[in-house]
Design goal:
By secondary structure, the protein is an alpha+beta fold. The chain has two domains: 128 residues, PAS domain (Beta-Lactamase, 2-Layer Sandwich); 212 residues, Hypothetical protein af1432. The chain is built from 15 helices and five strands. It has a five-stranded antiparallel beta sheet with strand order 2-1-5-4-3. Helix 7 packs across helix 15 and helix 12 crosses helix 13.
Length: 361
């Protein structure tokens, strides 16, 4: 061996030693496989997380070692597809998957796969991180958020019940408005967060009536101008009651605007068109439909046909045309019964969190 060969070999050994040190000092699991799925590199972090020593792992198939059995065929198909087309769903991406330890326990891991092409046949390096603790923490946060949401719903239900206890003639009115408003919002394809807001806005839209005298609420005769002015104050009073509450939805604005009309003929501020938020426009139509089809102290129930006639007559003038059309589809075409639809607590407590949707491969 000449001097140049000796220096080259020495440099190679130093590079290899440095590479091995870097591999084993990594806090993440680093596992490399060849194009046949055989493990060729397996660092210390992988030994700790998965329980196999490097001596046990190197030379074995990755899918038979740390991939749960139900996902092995998917892994093999993905490997074959990449070798055939150069394309892979997880290549270069960070995904959450499940891994299998030596003891047979499945654990959640975060995975990134990068291909290496030193020659004709590619190798693949997988970087894996055990996220068991993170997922446990996320679950605790989720449970806490659900409990908070349940408490919020119970509070809103209590507020709604308090309003109804003062006015026996409109018992269930807010619930029915909330149910119809929610259904209209769903028909309009609002996202889940806005749907929840519409529902809760409907549940509390008349909270301002708490300050309206009982004799006005239960008056069986036509309301005089003084009583009418008092009634017209309830959106403002509802807004004042809730404006300082930090809801994740514009509840106070919904309440303030639920008697506004597109043509400016509503109250309390005579707003027009897009100055009225969509949630309020939805609650307005639901409120009108429920109020007309139900009985009141000063008149008998007019029925659902009269309610639909009202919103159809003023569609695009007083009431949002898209909201009216959605309401009509629900009732006329889909058979929605405003008197037989309520949404329980369980419909609203489930939060959407990222799930482990993809497994190794």
């Amino acid at each position: 061996m000449d001097v140049k060969e000796s220096i080259s070999l020495h440099e190679h050994l130093v590079d290899q030693e440095w590479f091995n040190a870097m591999l084993d000092s990594s806090l993440d699991c680093i596992i490399a496989i060849d194009h046949g799925g055989i493990i060729v590199e397996y660092n210390h972090a992988a030994e700790t997380v998965f329980g196999y020593s490097a001596a046990e792992a190197v030379g074995r198939r990755l899918d038979e070692l740390i991939i749960p059995e139900r996902y092995r065929s998917r892994h093999r198909e993905a490997l074959a597809r990449y070798l055939r087309t150069g394309e892979g769903n997880v290549i270069g991406r960070r995904v959450e998957v499940h891994g299998l330890t030596k003891s047979g326990r499945e654990i959640p891991v975060e995975l990134t796969v990068l291909p290496i092409h030193p020659g004709r046949s590619p190798y693949f390096t997988a970087y894996l991180r055990d996220i068991t603790e993170r997922k446990a923490a996320e679950e605790k946060i989720r449970d806490y958020a659900i409990k908070l949401k349940e408490s919020l719903i119970e509070t809103i239900n209590s507020v709604s019940t308090t309003v109804e206890m003062r006015d026996a003639y409109t018992t269930g009115h807010q619930r029915r408005v909330a149910a119809l408003a929610y259904a209209i919002g769903r028909e309009l394809k609002l996202d889940e967060k806005r749907l929840e807001g519409v529902y809760f806005g409907g549940m509390m839209h008349d909270i301002g009536k708490i300050v309206v005298p009982m004799e006005v609420l239960t008056d069986r005769g036509p309301l005089g101008s003084s009583a009418m002015k008092t009634i017209h104050l309830h959106p403002v009073m509802g807004y004042k009651i809730l404006k300082s509450v930090h809801f994740p939805w514009p509840i106070a604005i919904m309440i303030l605007q639920h008697h506004e009309k597109l043509d400016g003929s509503g109250y309390p501020n005579g707003l027009m068109g897009d100055d009225i938020i969509l949630e309020s426009r939805i609650i307005t139509v639901a409120d009108i439909v429920e109020a007309i089809q139900s009985g009141r102290p000063y008149r008998d129930a007019k029925g659902i046909e009269a309610a639909l006639d009202e919103i159809t007559r003023w569609s695009g003038v007083k009431y949002d045309a898209a909201v009216v059309a959605a309401c009509r589809r629900l009732i006329v075409e889909q058979g929605f019964n405003i008197n037989d639809n309520d949404y329980t607590t369980t419909d609203f407590v489930n939060l959407t969190f990222m799930k482990v949707g993809e497994e190794i491969g």
